[in-house]
Amino acid sequence: MRATAKTALFAAAIATAAMMQGCAHKDLCYDHSHVVDLRVDFDWSLAPDATPRTMVVRLFRPDGSHYAVHEFTSAESGHIRVEAGDYMILCHNGEMENVLEGGDSFSDYHLATKARALLSPMGRADAQAPPRPGASTSEPVRNTPEQVWAGCCTSLSIQPRTEGQSVTLRPAEATAHYTVTIYKVENLTAAIDISGAITGMSEQWNVAAARPSGITVTHPVAFERLDEHTLRAEFHAFGHCHESDTPHYFSVYTSNNVYKDFEITEQLHGAQNPREVNIEIEGLTLPPQGTGIQPGISGWDNVVDTEIDMH
Predict the structure, then answer these.
(1) Which contiguous run of DSSP H or E holds residue 253?
(2) Contact, 180 vs 217, CB < 8 A?
(3) Tens digits of residue pLDDT in 17-52
(4) CA atoms of 280 and 282, how far apart (whole Å)
């Protein structure tokens, strides 16, 4: 009995020692010397007036496949832990309500906006859709994006077991600012809700190529009433298609089911500053309140043509 007990204790001791040796060997597998601390700095010299709340940084391997994503709560700098190796980096601001991220690789990663009903800016998202001009009939309707800043780094080599490594990213504005002003509006009253839409705009922004991409879309926009005869819409967009022969239109829709389309191709393509586009339309006569097709009745009426001066 005593010999048996001693034998059992000896066997248990051997097993315990073996387990301890196994644990010690396993610990050697957790050598993280190939993982280093990388400082990420944002240089805003290309967009000195930028006001992003957060920044998204995506790392891609040399073959373009996605490696990791990090979000920074500071627009100045931050630190991440990353494996030593070669990378490409894309960055853009985060916390955007209307902008979606898409694409699986460095070359096709893009930012795009969400779908939106054409009459949403006037609070009638469920109303019957109005007629749409020209080839824009088949365009998807998308929200306008918030202001977007984006940038890239095409080559970064991170060394193992090396402290103090950093990368500087230089974001630039990806969106352009558009202003549409309509002067000499007649019969504009507080009883009429009104909104607009612009056709032939770029669907998305390719971050690596730093250019608009995708198909063309229509953006619905809200109006500000500057006075009883002037309407203004201001919004951001990823740009428009300069290479297409399809005309661009700006449409005005009202809650009493009347609409008017204005061709704005020349102004859009001929803007002196493509990052700050001003479109001016002079002359829009709406039917007097109490005439024409009234709310609640199906169908839309085109506003009778007026003399339009396109500046």
Answers:
(1) strand 249-254
(2) no
(3) 443 343 333 344 444 568 999 999 999 999 999 999
(4) 7
